[in-house]
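<goal> How does this chain fold?
<sample>
Here is the protein in question

***
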Amino acid sequence: MTEELNERTPEHIGNDAASRHTPVLLQRCLDLLAPAFDVENPVLVDSTLGMGGHTEGVLQAFPHVRVIGLDRDTQALELAGRRLAPFGERFTGVHAVYDEINDVLDRLGIPGVQGVLMDLGVSSLQLDERERGFSYSADAPLDMRMDATTGQTAADVLNTYDERELARILRVYGEERFAPRIARAIVAQRATRPLARTGELVSIVRANIPAATRKTGGNPAKRTFQALRIEVNGEIEVLERALPQSIEALAVGGRIVVEAYHSLEDRAVKRALAVGATSSAPPDLPVEPATHAPFLRLVTRGAEEADEAELAHNPRSQSVRLRAAERVRPTPDHLKPRQTGRRAA
């Protein structure tokens, strides 16, 4: 997936998922996951299936692996399903948000998995489909729901949240310097008529960002659109629930690989992995109890970025930050996430 929005959207987009999506850092993801697959009948959960690019790469590279693909976007599931049909029963697509990973595995009768892959952010499909309202480059309804079957839309947020809350969302989720000005203008505009189209929002943002600032950094609306998308889909809250649940789903020796595309996501990933990779014993204890030893081992040094070759091959990898860890033992009872009945295999 990606955090970089298209400045231009093609007039006609084919239905072939492979032609519409180039997975970010695919080979690096495969290399990181490979050691975990050196067991009998390994299972990977692709928590953000999208159009199936990463899953296809896994199924091609590792003929003994089964993949469970989760996505809240029914259109993505349909496209990925067609793309992955040649792999038969080795692929199972599930309509679910990735914080539901353990419920899905329970229903499928899978006690623990060898890999979890999370490619966060907005997908190529969502950007390319104009009527979804994710892109600021074309006028469309203010929707922005990843699951178009449920939940509030961007229009609902813009037309019902108060000015202070709108400003907070734009400032925190979009890191928008001019959030108060934009929020004030949104409230003034909706007093005349409710906002309904992305073009209206782009015009408001442009009018409330100084001309000197608009000269650099691309389209000035991109931060506002990012913030609204995150709010509409509850992305940060879902991610913060999903990370510990995903780690809990891993069998010992299993690996989690996460690709994030903005600082809020990456900080959440870094915190979650650090909990497992750090001793939970009080620092003044002379001997670390075995129950407090780390249960994760970090397998990347910090957050990895795309190199020049990847950027040339896939410009949407520009903002990616990749982190990975391996489970080395079961989670101690005092650190298990709440509301989960699962245990590491």
